[in-house]
């Protein structure tokens, strides 16, 4: 027997808005304008940000036709996924829709909002636990493909200043398989993947988890297929008027993680940084200015 598909959130709100109490209307207004928050943040975080109790959101979900708040949240994720389904060509075309509106202030504003949202979106306890996992790992393997590849290179560049356990998989003549071979429960595999998701990133997370390694995922949505294999996951917003997603928040998170690791490592990290800097200068890596 066929079942009716869930209604669009804004359509459902419009259909029932007149019936809602003042409190539920406040919650409905917040949901209508903040689907990213509904899709990615906990009910408690949404309630705190909007000033409406969690129970009110549960009542609202039922009042506008959803079984419960989780069903409403899943619909928000679905709608965001559909929006991501727009082709890059479509997004590029939208950049030309208003040539008189400068891109720079819009791009800066979007990136600032994405970065600010990290404070609410990232669970500090999970972040501490993930950093602790990295600190005690025998080896850390970084996985990144397509647009994410450069960001794993940057991650490794920062980390190798103070720690020699980091390696980027599938680089410098090494295959992805050869880097993942031998990974086990002593190791951590860290995957960076944003939409459109690379098949190799999903498969790497799966292989790493099957090998017993801990898996950390940095991504842009709960829709990332590799999330099911993650022990720790961190979702960053990528909203942008550009034709491609923004990595600004991801860069801040990468720099935060490496900074936390340096702080934990203490004098050992300082000693290695000094040694690396010395060898870079001996090898004439830097321009003398």
Any chance you could write out the topology, listing elements then pairs?
Layout: H1 9-16, H2 22-33, H3 35-40, H4 43-50, H5 54-63, H6 69-84, H7 88-95, H8 103-121, H9 124-136, E1 140-144, H10 149-160, E2 166-168, H11 176-180, E3 188-193, H12 199-210, E4 214-219, E5 232-235, H13 248-265, H14 267-282
Parallel strand pairs: 1-2, 1-3, 3-4, 4-5
Helix pairs in contact: 2-5, 8-13, 9-13, 10-13
Q: What does this entry look like structurally?
A:
With 289 residues, this protein is α/β, with parallel strands linked by helices. It folds into two domains: 9-84, Winged helix-like DNA-binding domain superfamily/Winged helix DNA-binding domain (Arc Repressor Mutant, subunit A, Orthogonal Bundle), CATH 1.10.10.10; 117-282, Rossmann fold (3-Layer(aba) Sandwich). Strand 1, helix 10 and strand 2 form a beta-alpha-beta unit. It is built from 14 helices and five strands. The longest helix is centred in the middle third of the chain and has 19 residues, at 103-121. The chain starts with 8 loop residues before the first helix and ends in a 7-residue tail after the last helix. Helix 9 packs across helix 13 and helix 10 (149-160) runs parallel beside helix 13. It has helices spanning 9-16, 22-33, 35-40, 43-50, 54-63, 69-84, 88-95, 103-121, 124-136, 149-160, 176-180, 199-210, 248-265, 267-282, and strands at residues 140-144, 166-168, 188-193, 214-219, 232-235. The protein is 56% helix and 8% strand.
């Amino acid at each position: 027997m066929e079942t009716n598909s869930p209604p669009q959130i804004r359509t459902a709100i419009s259909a029932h808005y007149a019936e809602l109490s003042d409190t539920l209307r406040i919650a409905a207004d917040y949901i209508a304008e903040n689907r990213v928050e509904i899709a990615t943040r906990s009910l408690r975080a949404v309630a705190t940000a909007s000033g409406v109790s969690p129970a009110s959101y549960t009542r609202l979900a039922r009042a506008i036709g959803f079984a419960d708040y989780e069903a409403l949240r899943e619909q928000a994720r679905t709608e965001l996924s559909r929006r991501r389904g727009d082709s890059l060509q479509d997004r590029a075309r939208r950049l030309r829709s208003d040539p008189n509106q400068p891109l720079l202030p819009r791009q800066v504003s979007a990136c600032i909002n994405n970065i600010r949202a990290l404070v609410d979106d990232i669970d500090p306890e999970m972040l501490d636990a993930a950093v602790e996992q990295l600190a005690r790992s025998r080896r850390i393997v970084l996985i990144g493909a397509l647009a994410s590849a450069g960001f794993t290179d940057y991650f490794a560049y920062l980390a190798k200043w103070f720690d020699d356990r980091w390696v980027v998989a599938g680089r410098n003549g090494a295959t992805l398989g050869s880097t993942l071979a031998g990974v086990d429960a002593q190791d951590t595999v860290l995957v960076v993947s944003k939409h459109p998701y690379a098949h190799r990133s999903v498969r790497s997370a799966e292989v790493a988890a099957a090998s017993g390694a801990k898996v950390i995922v940095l991504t842009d949505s709960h829709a990332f297929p590799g999330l099911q294999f993650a022990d720790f996951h961190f979702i960053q917003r990528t909203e942008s008027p550009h034709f491609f997603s923004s990595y600004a928040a991801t860069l801040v998170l990468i720099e935060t993680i490496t900074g936390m690791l340096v702080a934990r490592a203490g004098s050992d990290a300082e000693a290695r940084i000094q040694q690396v800097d010395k060898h870079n200068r001996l090898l004439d890596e830097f321009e003398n200015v």
